[in-house]
Specification:
Elements lengths: L1 H36 L2 E2 L13 E2 H5 L1 H9 L5 H6 L3 E2 L4 E5 L5 H8 L5 E3 L10 H4 L3 H6 L3 E2 L4 E5 L9 H8 L4 E6 L2 H18 L7 H5 L12 H5 L2 H8 L8 E5 H6 L1 H11 L11 E4 L4 E5 L5 E2 L14 H22 L7
Parallel strand pairs: 4-7, 4-8, 5-7, 8-9
Antiparallel strand pairs: 1-2, 3-6, 10-11, 11-12
Helix pairs in contact: 12-15
């Protein structure tokens, strides 16, 4: 009898201990996140807020869990109405560049409590079939958000697709446009590497980079090769400038975002008129992955997909030299137009 009572008592103590530990962890997480987000976020009417009222950042921080439930379809229309949630057209778009770091930039900006990201590439403006479905179809593809937040989407193909600038202009002529770029030769090799990996998964053969990047007949750079053509940033940017002033663009250094992300993110916060909230606390270097990962709070961390940071194949140094020499005058013009000089060879 005594043995049964002792066993019963031990079981009760174990349950109470588990509850206490769970409560303690919740309080630590709650206090940690609220302490960091306690300041008031003065988000004024510039993002379509209903009033000039200030919005506590902790109220916006609450949206992470709630909006996750909406994405999973676990909430009703009544809950949408009660929480005053909407699906807004984006106030900013990451328009490119492919293999420049668009996914990393989007995920890092999502650390800001006033930002909500569209998780998937919508391909509305570069896909004729999608575009024909209309702007309401596009809006419905956006995540739920509070009116005081801004929605950002990214589709890297926008930058190089001829019809896109005019289409975006017709939607919102004052939209803010983000372009993340890397050193052009490195970006072209990264582009090639992604395609190569896809071919290998299907047991298909593929030409070496050198054979694609250099025209065998002329021994000059092959501008018909898409990976090369995409890296001529100034050619694509000039088409966008027919519709938008340069002040509506912000250039993000994709190479620096890899090695030193915080200064680049702070520049984007300023460009988007967001109060500075992303800090070193939110970014930690993962030595195993070789990249920075994201810390939303002391409980929730996130690293980019394992497909990011693929190892590039070895490329003939003479081809790299030829490509860099080819890109140099285009790079200089790009610096001149954008007002941002990047340390590219």
């Amino acid at each position: 009898m005594l043995f049964k009572q002792q066993a019963w008592l031990r079981q009760k103590l174990l349950v109470l201990g588990s509850l206490a530990v769970g409560s303690l962890l919740y309080l630590v997480a709650r206090v940690g996140s609220l302490d960091r987000l306690q300041p008031i976020c003065p988000i004024e009417g510039r993002f379509g807020a209903r009033s000039q009222a200030e919005v506590p950042l902790r109220a916006l921080q609450f949206k992470r869990g709630l909006l996750h439930e909406f994405r999973k379809g676990n909430t009703s229309k009544e809950q949408v109405r009660l929480h005053d949630l909407v699906q807004q057209l984006p106030k900013a778009i990451i328009i490119g560049v492919r293999k420049g770091g668009t996914r990393a930039l989007l995920e890092m900006l999502n650390l800001h409590p006033a930002v909500v990201k569209a998780s998937q590439e919508i391909h509305f403006f570069d896909n004729d079939e999608n575009y024909a479905k209309g702007i309401e179809w596009y809006r419905k593809k956006m995540p739920f958000s509070y009116p005081q937040q801004i929605t950002i989407e990214k589709s890297p193909a926008y930058f190089i697709t001829e019809e896109v600038p005019e289409r975006i202009y017709k939607m919102n002529s004052s939209i803010k446009l983000l372009i993340i770029v890397r050193e052009p030769t490195t970006r072209a090799i990264s582009d090639y590497t992604q395609v190569l990996e896809g071919k290998e998964r299907k047991n298909k053969t593929y030409y070496k980079f050198e054979k694609l990047a250099i025209d065998p007949n002329t021994c000059e750079v092959n501008t018909k090769y898409k990976a090369v053509r995409t890296s001529i940033y100034t050619k694509h940017l000039e088409r966008w400038l027919k519709y938008f002033p340069i002040e509506q663009f912000h250039i993000v250094d994709g190479d620096r975002l890899i090695t030193e992300p915080l200064p680049e993110l702070q520049l984007v916060e300023k460009f988007l008129n967001l109060p500075p909230r992303i800090s070193q606390y939110n970014l930690y270097f993962n030595a195993t992955r070789g990249f920075y990962c994201l810390r939303f709070n002391i409980i929730f961390n996130k690293c980019l997909a394992g497909s990011k940071g693929r190892i590039h194949p070895e490329v003939d140094p003479s081809v790299i030299t030829k490509l860099r020499k080819f890109f140099h005058p285009f790079n200089q013009k790009f610096y001149q137009i954008t007002g941002r000089t990047l340390n590219w060879p």
